[in-house]
Design brief:
The protein is 46% helix and 14% strand. It has 195 residues and is of the alpha/beta class. Helix 2 packs across helix 3 and helix 5 crosses helix 6.
Amino acid sequence: AGELAQVEAALVERGLGDDQRTAVLGILGSGRRGDVLIGPAGSGKSFTVAALAEQWQKRVGGPVVGLATSQIAAQVLEEEGLNAHNIARWLQAYEPDERTGEARATLPAGALLVIDETGMSATDQLDRVRRIAERSGAKLLWTGDHEQLDAVGAGGALRMLARGQVQELGVEDGRRFRAGWEQDASLGLRSGSRE
């Protein structure tokens, strides 16, 4: 209980809202190999993940690696303090070489892999990341919004994950917007409203 109170205090000090703190505490304490963090654009998912990464490294001791479909999205994760990579490039380093059967890099025990905007990633890439995480004992955190853009190729994994056996945690409040109408417009676009 003392450690939980310390984490809670650190999250409050960092400025996380109730929903964000609940998500971080849920992910840290779930004991599962994978969790899902869902939230609309501007709800503070990246900020939440940055706070989670800080606590993960303090409490679990493993590295936190961010994976994103695009290099630009990986840079956003880096700005939040994560060691982030383009998912395709990362897979080249961590998958076993076809000739030697050895990967160029391995994940240390206790790693947390954060897949940013999971819905935009191809299902086969996500499965390949899952296999690597499984081999190393890493935890997976799939983040995104299943109401937003899907992968160009075979996709829909975030929707399936959100309905599956993993814990779905959410952040709801719009934090990135300066004017109230911006949040309303973002949520309207998310739901398909034409008004």
